[in-house]
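On clarity, I found the account of how folds are encoded harder to follow than it need be. For illustration, here is how one protein appears when written out as sequence plus structure tokens:

:::
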Amino acid sequence: MRFLKIFSVLIVLTLIVGGIVLWTLPADVAYRYGARYLGPIALTGLRGTIWDGHADGVSAFGRDVGELDWHAQKRALLGGQFVADVRIKGADVDAAGLVTREGEGTISARDLRFRMPAELLAPALDIGTLKLLGTISGVVSQATLVGAVLRDANGNARWSDAGVSGEAEARFSDILVEFGAQPGTGIAGTVHDDGTGDLAVNGTFNANLGTFDAQATLSARNGNEQVTETLRHVGEVQADGSSKLIIHGQLLPVL
């Protein structure tokens, strides 16, 4: 009987000590053991605890995107799942949302709001020497990343103050993007302008297993000569003066 009492006391003490350690576990110690579960994401300069912490640097696929703050949900973490409200803020990218680290190298995000310079898309779009102007912002309602592959995503984005500079100079109306997961085909979406400017855009795209294909018809609205001249440097010029843009590339150049 005395042995059972002592054993019970030891169990209680172990749970208390374990709880204190977990409750105050430094972020850098937790990362040391959990880094292998974060896939293509790496952190540096960690401070705080596993519950509420800060990283001076966060990189994705080898690209530095800024600083990171997180606030983890304690109940989920005690159940073996990391769920946290995160905020990434850098010179180029500003994003915030709910991120979950699930089993087998899967990272999912919900209600992720983002903002970044349009120029970050230039390597993926491959439009020569033209520089993209303006800002892209939007919401990813849901997304799943398995290893380094984006499996599915749903959301929308807006390219504000859109324009290009370089061999041609032009400003356009806002460009709107909507995308969603498609069974068996990855992610598909549409691209179009808001109808208020002199550039008309109508296109579609599909992304699957790290690659994407897109096509769009670009044309000058209201006979705008500046837009017409810009289109000579984008895509394949058609007989009616419009331009057909066809792109096949990888998602990773964006990062």
